[in-house]
């Protein structure tokens, strides 16, 4: 019963992980991560 009420399936989690990796790579390519790191200091 609990598993059915869970919003996330295994496929959803995997796809989210892939999206997260793609977003990270995109930010990295654009140099946004470097900008964020420099503002933290």
UniProtKB/TrEMBL annotation:
Protein origin, superkingdom: Eukaryota
Record's protein name: OFD1 centriole and centriolar satellite protein
Gene that encodes the chain: OFD1
